[in-house]
Amino acid sequence: MYWAFNAPHYPYQGTTKLLDYYKGLPTPGKEYAAFVSKTDENIGNILDYLDEVGIADNTIVIFQSNHRHSLEERAFWGDDNSGPYRGSKFSLFEGGIRVPAIIRYPGIFPANQVRVHVINLAGDGLV
User: Looking at the record's lineage, which domain of life comes first (predicted)?
Assistant: First the structure.
């Protein structure tokens, strides 16, 4: 199964319930937090479905970003940073291309581990 999930991404579209939950945060933080929470909920729904139909143990689930933070106006001029790395979206510096990936593959990748390996998911990352 392949599902290209474009969230969280601008325009930030949190639900009213989640926007109310994060109402104490300033804009755009509350909108982004609500959208990330909705993304988390949707991914949880997918994982629950895989369990329900009995294919979770034989399904690789990968969640990753296509770029780091954006400095574009519609992204509120990059209300984030790339930490110690130079660059952002549209940059080939590490701050533009280092992205997190969350991989779930029961029996192969143990749960609750953090690894800092560099992998290529553009064709040979899992071979």
Answer: Bacteria
Residues 3, 50: Cα–Cα separation, whole Å: 13
Among candidates 91, 98, 96, 92, which has minimal Cα distance to 118?
Answer: 98
What are the distances in angstroms from CA 18 to CA 5, 31, 32, 37? 19, 9, 10, 7
- Per-residue pLDDT tens digits for 36-54: 898 899 999 999 999 999 9
Residue 124 DSSP SS3: coil
Residue with tokens 């130079």: 86
Give the count of beta carbons closer than 10 Å to the beta carbon of residue 26. Answer: 9
Task: Indicate the domain borders of the chain.
Answer: 16-104
Per the CB < 8 A criterion, the answer to whether 118 and 97 are in contact is no
